Amino acid sequence: MSDWITDRKPTEEDGILVYSYEGKPWHYTHIDIGQAWKPIPKIEPYVKPKRYIVRPFCDTGDYDVFYVDLLRVAMSIPTREAAERIAAIYEEAMP
Predict the structure, then answer these.
(1) SS3 call for 3
(2) Domain limits for position 33
(3) Are residues 20 and 57 in the same domain?
(4) How many domains does the chain have?
């Protein structure tokens, strides 16, 4: 089934903005029934990948903070929550 719609006029929720041959924008209400149009899909916002990760430190119950290439940044942090806060600080502060 095609995504093109011809049996109804678009609504504001469809997110349609059509351009004329002259390159001027038309409002979505300028599309008549019978003209083909396609709704604009909503995209997910960009989420910057994490560069610092938290991993368990050996079998001691402590945690490490690693850079993505597994370079150890901080080690032997007593709780996972503290290690995650440190990783978040590195994310914010390091370029």
Answers:
(1) coil
(2) 1-43
(3) no
(4) 2
Same domain, 38 and 62: no
Which has more confidence, 67 or 11?
67
Entry pTM: 0.48
Tokens 């150890």, located at residue:
72
Exposed, middle or buried by CB within 10 Å (0-12, 13-18, 19+), for 25? exposed
Distance CA 15, CA 30 (A): 14
Question: What is the band of 69 on the pLDDT scale with cuts at 50, 70, 90?
Answer: confident
Kindly state the greatest CA–CA separation across the chain.
69
Q: Terminal CA-to-CA distance of the chain, rounded, Å?
A: 47
Q: Are residues 2 and 37 in the same domain?
A: yes
Which run of H or E residues covers position 19?
strand 18-19
